[in-house]
Design goal:
The protein is α+β, with helices and mostly antiparallel strands. It has five helices and six strands, in the order H-H-E-H-E-H-E-E-E-E-H. The radius of gyration is 14 Å and the shape is globular.
């Protein structure tokens, strides 16, 4: 999330709405969101409903959800998907910003 926060103004300039979905319950999620002062939308998903809809993986050996990034256009079409195999496996913002600029 630090990566998204760092370039948030560039995403906003491209009229991008960032929604981060996390496994925590609503109270824990809200506390984290306020503590970190995150500028985008956070959605708690403790029952994995959204996770299951989009096929995000959970790895017990790696202690939780694997990273997933998606770009959904204004028409609802999925334009980009990245499923990471570790928490370090996240696309660079430049790659996502370039894609957004081309839509």
């Amino acid at each position: 999330m630090a990566q998204l926060r760092r370039d948030y103004q560039q995403f906003a300039a491209l009229e991008t709405v960032i929604i981060v979905i996390g496994p925590e319950d609503a109270a824990s999620f809200r506390h984290y969101w306020h503590r970190e002062n995150l500028p985008f939308i956070g959605l708690p998903d403790p029952e994995h409903r959204v996770l299951n809809l989009y096929g995000q993986e959970v790895s017990l050996l790696k202690l939780g959800r694997m990273p997933a990034q998606m770009v959904i256009d204004r028409s609802g079409w999925l334009r980009f998907v990245s499923y990471g195999t570790s928490m370090a496996d996240i696309p660079a913002n430049d790659e996502v910003l370039s894609l957004l600029a081309s839509l």
